[in-house]
Amino acid sequence: MLLRVEDLHKRYGKDEVLKGVSFSLEKGETKVIIGPSGTGKSTLLRCINRLTEPDRGKIWLEDVEITSPRVNIHRIRAQIGFVFQDFNLFTHLTALDNVRLGLMRVKGLSKQEATARAMQELARVGLADKAKAYPAELSGGQQQRVSIARALAMDPKLILFDEPTSALDPELIGEVLAVMEDLAKSGMTMLVVTHEMGFARTVADEIIFMEKGVIVEQGPPEQLFRNPKHPRTAEFLRRITDLYGGER
Amino acid sequence: MNLAFSWDWLPRLSQGLLLTLELTAISMALGAVFGVLLAVLRVYGRGPLYPLYLLASAYVHFFRGTPLLVQVMAIYYGLPTLGIRFTPFISGLLALTLNTAAYQAEYFRGAIQSVRAGQMQAALALGLTRLQAIRYVILPQALRLVIPPWSNELIYMVKGSAVVYLIGVLELMGQAKNIAARTFRHFEVYVVVAMFYLALILVFTLILRWVEKRTRIPGLGVPGRA
Amino acid sequence: MTFEHWLRTWSYLPTLLQGLSTNLAILGALLSLGFFVGILIAILELYAPLPLRLLGAGYSWVFRSIPEILLLLLVWLGPARFGLSISPFWAAVVALGLRSSAYQAEIFRGALQSIPSGQTLAARALGLSPFGTIRYVLLPQALRLSLAGWGNEFAVVLKDTTLAYAIGVVEVLQKARFISSREFPLTFPAYVTVALLFLFLTYAGLFLLGKLEKRLRIPGLEARR
Fold first, then answer.
1. How far apart are the C-alpha atoms of C127 and A202, rounded to whole Å?
2. Distance (Å) from the C-alpha of residue A101 to the closest C-alpha of chain B?
3. B50 lies within 8 A of chain A by CB
4. B174: three-class secondary structure by DSSP
């Protein structure tokens, strides 16, 4: 088991955003989390690499309990990739520098090694020719792909995607989803929060439906889409496929 | 109307100008180092470094909220009663440095806070420590964002350096006062000095504008400042 | 220097406050002068024909580049060369007031320019004259948008009033010197007390300005970032 999340709780003031969430991920699996906005999906992702500290609960990455206070969280984070909804590319660095920063400052690679590796990942997402561009000179889709390259270059055990296409113009969504699909097929372990049902249906090994801070239902895509066990699941899926379309 | 100027004044005034530049340069440089430290404490010091955070905040409020001239006099006339005696030049320099450090701290703080929160998050997500994130991601951006207000502060400091003539420092104003006392041509001397300052600040403004252009990065811009 | 020294210094508080009232008088007069001249310069810089605009720009450059203390000396000593005389108090008001007008013009100009051009278009479309547009649409918005900059300017000029000391105005710094000459050990506490008085005044002023801002606040009308 690559990732195990056990009984995660998180409260913001009076709001309990995560009310005891548990699930797990095997190596190579791609799981997609869906659900109405504000149900704690993003918070869940941020708890996994402890960008947000959970109030209660435990998380294991392979056999290391990463919620333990004794663990070196920076080393753990280097093993977990994170792709943000707002890309969050470093504004003052070129695409190449963005991908290199983690390699040089966290993993300690030399400039040559880092450059080679970074160019490899940029090529993988199809942006080798934009290596010297600044984020502001790239389209949203390109920025997000660089951000994926940045995460990939660290050779993570797992990549978390927090609504990676929600901030993109419709015509740019496809290029990012294509990269993500390739990644999933190549065996990367992925946990994706998204509204893109087409992607969820084709790429996910399992879909997790969350609402109001708890997991309502989880299962293989076909099962959820054809035979949802829970009425809320059915209702949500009906609404969302009307809005976002089915296959893409 | 009876105005008379003289070229004889120029050598002495130029000496004074040099001292003005010295005072400005040293106080700005030291003030920048100290200011960055104060700013980082103010932005990131709430947790483990709380007492330092409070000290930094108190310092900034005090030195920004009180007049420079009072600070100068407190140091030059006041400290000797405590047994600490500085020369006029050092007193003036000290007051200018302490003063500009507080203002620069605020400008750096504003710049650091202008860097979007997502940048820190992304840095942490990669596995960088807070300190590394500040060093490689936040500060490089903040330093560019701070150029406009810092330029403003430089201009203010050039003008601020003038007040130290009151404690006897022979910078531009100090030299002028001496010449005026000798020649009784007060107004004329001060008019010449005014032209010195006008030229000096024009030059500085142009240089700073050039620096801003050279270090500009597309996409890294300042939201409006008061 | 003991606690006793500080107590003795504070017994001189009435003297210091007397001096401070002069600073405040200078402050009030100079801000008023700065306000009206500032608005004039701002309107000049935005709407006047080119030569006048250049004049406005030149005015700004001069009054923002010359150190305040030098400005004070020039305004005080200048008239004598032309056969006139001016009291130190009024020299301070005029010098600092004109300097402030350059900065206030900048604040005001920035505020006017940050009003979306659509506002002017809508006003004209309604049939408002240029003057009417300024008076009923632009000015009310610009005045609100200027409040932040004015808070800044207030904080700056309040402290600048101490420079009047250099041309012999009997204000608070002069009183502090007086205390120091009476009782030498009280020098440091006296200056620190003066500093604290200004600290208090600065925050009191900003607080009041904040209240004013809240009173006048209109949702949606905020300084463009």
1. 60
2. 8
3. no
4. helix
* A136-157 average pLDDT score: 94
Adjacency order of strands within the sheet including A190-193: A80-83, A158-162, A190-193, A30-34, A206-211, A214-219
Rounded to whole angstroms, the Cα distance separating A158 from A182 reads 15
Helices and strands of chain C, counted as H and E runs: 11, 0
> At residue C207, what is the residue type?
F
- Pick the closest to residue B42 from B107, B98, B133 (CA basis): B107
Express the helix, strand and coil content of chain A in percent, nearest 5 each: 40, 25, 35
Contacts of A88 in chain B (CB under 8 A): 116, 118-119, 121-122
Residues 6 or more apart whose CB falls under 8 angstroms from that of A135 comprise A87, A89, A90, A91, A93, A95, A98, A143, A146, B219
Q: In A, which residues are within 8 Å of B118 by CB distance?
A: 84, 86, 88
B3 against B62, higher pLDDT? B62
Cβ pair A195, A183 in contact under 8 A:
no
Among B57, B69, B77, B169, the strongest candidate for a mutation testing the C interface, having the largest count of C CBs within 10 A, is: B69
| pLDDT tens track for B28-87 | 999 999 999 999 999 988 888 899 999 999 999 999 999 999 999 999 999 998 888 999
Q: Which two tokens stand for residue A70?
A: 């004794």
Inter-axis angle of helices C13-47 and C172-182, nearest 10: 150
Q: CA B164 to CA B158: how far, in whole Å? A: 11
Residues of chain C positioned with their CB less than 8 A from the CB of B222: none
**Could you identify the residue written with the tokens 């880092």?**
A114
How many helices (H) does chain A have, and how many strands (E)? 9, 10
Summarize pLDDT for C24-76 with one digit per residue, the tens.
999 999 999 999 999 889 888 888 888 888 888 899 889 999 999 999 999 99
**Amino acid letter, residue A106:** V
* Cβ-proximal residues to C63 (8 Å cutoff; 6+ apart), any chain: C71, C98, C99, C101, C102
Residue C4 CB: number of other CB atoms within 10 A? 9
Torsion of CA B62, B66, B67, B68, to 10 degrees: -10
Chain-chain contact of A90 with B137 (C-beta, under 8 angstroms): yes
Chains C and A touch (3+ CB pairs under 8 A): no
| CA neighbours closer than 13 Å in the CB half-sphere of residue C174 | 16
| Six-digit token string for B139 | 């500060």
- Lookup result for tokens 């055990």: A157
The answer to whether residue C28 neighbours chain B at the CB level (below 8 Å) is no
Rounded to 5°, angle at Cα C178 from C172 and C181: 150
List residues bridging with A10 in a β-sheet. A18
Which residue in A164, A173, A217, A158 sits closest to A30, CA to CA?
A158
- What is residue C170's three-state secondary structure? coil
Name the nearest CA neighbour of C68 among B111, B68, B133.
B68
Chains that touch C (3 or more CB pairs under 8 A): B
Q: How far apart are CA B159 and CA B68, in angstroms?
A: 11
Question: What pTM value is reported for the model?
Answer: 0.80
> Can you tell me the ipTM of this complex?
0.87
Angle, alpha carbons C100-C103-C138 (nearest 5°): 115
Beta bridge partners of A24: A4
How many CB contacts within 8 angstroms connect chain A with chain B?
Answer: 78
Q: Is C133 on the interface with B (CB under 8 A)?
A: no
Query: 3-state SS string over C181-203?
Result: HHCHHHHHHHHHHHHHHHHHHHH
